[in-house]
Amino acid sequence: MAVAGAGNPGGGGSIWARVAYSAGVSPAKERLNNLWNTTSLVSALLMTFTYSNIGNPARSDTPLEPGSSRAIALEFANVAGILSFVMSLFCLMFNVVFHEVDYCTTHRDERDFILGFAGVFDAVAGLFAGSVVMLLLSVLCTIFVIHPMRTFWITVGTCIAMAIALFGTTLPITVFTRFRLWVRLEGALERGAAGGGSHGVTKAAAAAAVSEGRLEPQAAAAAEDEEDEEEEMGGSSKDRGGRGAVARNGGRALTVAAGNTG
Length: 262
What we know:
The protein has 8 helices and no strands. The protein is mostly helical. Helix 6 (149-194) packs across helix 7. 28% of the residues are buried.
């Protein structure tokens, strides 16, 4: 029995492939939908801000010498604003296209969609981050040109402080979530290796490892067969236990009935 989706190389090494394997396809699809909707909303808001700047670009009150730092900064501010608009627009369009997953009507189709395009999801998230960075650079360059230098340095210092705070908050959260996601699957693989084979390797861990090229499909299939066999044996034991309890209860009922008859 082959591991479902294990041979699909499209999702190899992607965070969304591991989320799909460990949490399940439906939770992964729901989380992706939330991500797409959020980035689409923010991208639309960024577009409304940058579009007004495109129609009314920043200008200096005093003539700028061509080639000077202020002239270059002003030109870059206008270009960065345009790039931010374009990147936000395409991020929004990509997210609309991603909702084609709603036309996948089977569990297998949804899984293959997530695994096949997991790398594209990451790339579009990077595109969204790039649009935000471009907008920030456009604002800083505009402040550099048309505002006093004191205002510019205060703004730069505030941005640096906020960036440090953001990094200091994001890093432990990211390490926590990614570590937990990785350790769940890698722990199962290590237990399987320590056991001298595929024993102890869960279906999710085996599928993720095969998609990343770190485990042979035959070993993953053996792991799935073992897990299915253990589940069947566990179910059989429960059935036997249940039948025994019914038989014992039935015997006691017959004994009580015979005593009442006597």
